[in-house]
Amino acid sequence: MTFKSFHPPVRTLMGPGPSDVNPRVLAAMSRPTIGHLDPVFVDMMDEMKGLLQYAFQTRNALTLPVSAPGSAGMETCFVNLVQPGDTVVVCANGVFGGRMKENVERCGATPVMVEDEWGKPVDPQKLEDALKAHPQASTVAFVHAETSTGACSDVKTLTDIAHRHGCLVIVDSVTGLGGVELRVDDWGVDAIYSGSQKCLSCTPGLSPVSFNEAAVERIKSRKHKVQSWFLDLSLVMGYWGGGTKRAYHHTAPINALYALHESLVVLQEEGLENAWARHRAQHEALKAGLDTMGLSMIVAPEHRLPQLNAVKVPAGVDEAAVRKLLLDEFNLEIGAGLGPLAGKVWRIGLMGYGANRKNVLFCLGALETALVAQGADIVPGRAVAAARAVYGA
Q1: Binding residues for substrate, per the UniProt record (predicted)?
Q2: Are 362 and 267 in contact (CB under 8 A)?
Q3: CA 381 to CA 91: how far, in whole Å?
Q4: Tell me: the pLDDT tens digits for 308-351?
Q5: What is the pLDDT of residue 246?
């Protein structure tokens, strides 16, 4: 059999990730590959750290992109900060709290679960109660921006509670970084991880992380060797540390790092608060259009992520058939529900470069067509008109 070059179709990505990649980022990936210890590349690494510090709003020296996707960022936090025998309070209000529990167990530690309904934020009082009941806990882990539901939890409040009980916090902001307010230093976050493929509009495969001084001290005082050689920060920092002399650790994904660098430059050019406002504005236009079709979201407005919209599937509608029509006829991808929300919601992403007026109007028009095809009582054009009214046009 003779194989030919792979040429993917041109899609509009409006699911839970990956998001549409900025053309500037794709162009950056095509630049010439150089060595991962080349002095010019080392200079770019230093710039990358500064750009990530801006995106996270932190001065943490230990801020870098892990050479693997967001799941590896999660594991980096847990394997470095959690040791066998530790007790970790894990707040779960969706898929990714469950994955945190898996990481705790694989570190040989004991998870104490704080469960909240999917679509709701983490309840601070439940965390307070759990920490009072388990004074031996050393760490609290929770998701800032839950990708499976579109719920946003109060990072500062949860972090303050954890600190009052002598715990460090590990925060998942894979879907949050660049799309919604996040202030690592002001909120006192000890360790945080994200992903390149969501609101940063980069390609998948990298996970920005940041650790404050308290987290670094815990890493330095470990009694057990980190179970993962590749993710052991005491080794990785020999490569990502400051100065021109770097110790070889692994061959970095050079062209992917060009892409992340460019995506962060784009974010800096726009301004972080402007990016947050843009995501909110596109969400409001999308919501106005969805309202005209009688579609509602599972998350209350005050806890809703603008970049991840979990929309209830109307009674009698085949949600999978709608997604298939959107993909087949419009080259438009939206996401399905996970876990207990499977078959009950669509997840519509407005992330990074994809959070724009063109995508919102396109998605609303295509969704109207798909629902009409299923016999829904919808007046074509009303959703787009409602969104345009929000835009003032």
Answers
A1: 347
A2: no
A3: 42
A4: 999 999 999 999 999 999 999 999 999 999 999 999 999 999 99
A5: 72
CB atoms within 10 A of CB 289: 25
- Whose tokens are 């990505």? That residue is 13
355 and 179 in contact (C-beta within 8 Å)?
A: yes
Residues of the chain with pLDDT under 50: none
Q: How far apart are CA 230 and CA 243, in angstroms?
A: 22
The pLDDT score that the predictor gives to residue 51 is: 98
Structure tokens, 295: 């579609």
Counting every residue, how long is the chain? 393
DSSP at 337 = P
Give the separation between CA 159 and CA 252, rounded to whole angstroms: 33
Count CA atoms closer than 13 A to 108's CA, side-chain side. 11
Q: 347 labelled as ligand-binding?
A: yes
Compute φ and ψ for 366, nearest 5 degrees.
-65, -40
Instruction: Tokens 């969704």: give the residue.
Output: 367
Domains of the chain, start order: 23-268 (3.40.640.10), 272-391 (3.90.1150.10)
- What are the φ/ψ torsions at residue 201 (nearest 5 degrees)? 60, 35
Closest CA to 317 of 250, 242, 360, 367: 367
**pLDDT for position 245:** 64
Residues 258-274 as b/e (b if ≥16 CB within 10 A, e otherwise) read: bbbbbbbbbbeeeebee
- H helix runs in the chain, sequence order: 23-29, 39-56, 70-81, 95-106, 124-133, 155-164, 184-187, 213-220, 233-240, 254-270, 272-292, 319-330, 357-373, 382-391
